[in-house]
């Protein structure tokens, strides 16, 4: 089944048609579009450019969120929600790194 990249985007018909007319067929092509590229298309104006720009920003936001640090932050939130302190663990952010630690308890110190 041949999927149409443009139809997967939540764009107006005008913006979708303009992108198809420009030959945009991949995510990378879409992300590289500039204001000048979009505005050079006949009958396309600021509103359509705004729509494209907003969607590009949305995609970038979600890509950052899915990056390794973004996923780690999400997992840290989930770990903290498990109330790890109750079990002697803690999670901190230290110099840009996420660290999982364990509090020393009397059983650890007994030989």
Describe the structure.
- There is one protein chain.
- The protein has helices spanning 5-8, 13-22, 27-32, 35-39, 46-65, 68-81, 106-109, and strands at 89-94, 97-102.
- It has 111 residues and is mainly α.
- It folds into two domains: 5-65, DNA polymerase, domain 1; 68-109, no CATH class.
- Strands 1-2 form a two-stranded antiparallel ribbon.
- The longest helix is centred in the middle third of the chain and has 20 residues, at 46-65.
Distance between the termini: 65 Å
- Rg over CA atoms, rounded to whole Å, is 23 Å
Work out the count of structural domains: 2
Tell me what the CATH architecture of the largest domain is: Orthogonal Bundle
The count of helical stretches stands at 7
Give the proportion of residues in helices.
55-70%
Low-pLDDT ranges: none
Mean pLDDT: 82
* Coarse morphology: rod-shaped
Q: Structural class given helices, strands, pairing?
A: mainly alpha
List the helices and strands and how they pair.
Elements: H1 5-8, H2 13-22, H3 27-32, H4 35-39, H5 46-65, H6 68-81, E1 89-94, E2 97-102, H7 106-109
Antiparallel strand pairs: 1-2
Précis, in short:
The protein is mainly alpha-helical. It contains 7 helices and 2 strands, in the order H-H-H-H-H-H-E-E-H. The radius of gyration is 23 Å and the shape is rod-shaped.
């Amino acid at each position: 089944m041949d999927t149409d990249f443009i139809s997967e985007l939540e764009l107006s018909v005008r913006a979708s048609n303009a992108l198809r007319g420009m030959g945009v067929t991949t995510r990378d092509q879409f992300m590289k579009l500039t204001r000048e590229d979009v505005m050079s298309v006949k009958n396309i104006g600021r509103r359509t450019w705004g729509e494209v720009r907003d969607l590009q920003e949305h995609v970038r936001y979600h890509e950052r969120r899915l990056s390794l640090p973004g996923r780690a932050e999400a997992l840290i939130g989930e770990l903290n929600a498990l109330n790890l302190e109750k079990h002697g663990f803690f999670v901190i952010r230290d110099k840009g790194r996420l660290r999982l630690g364990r509090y020393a308890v009397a059983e650890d110190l007994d030989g």
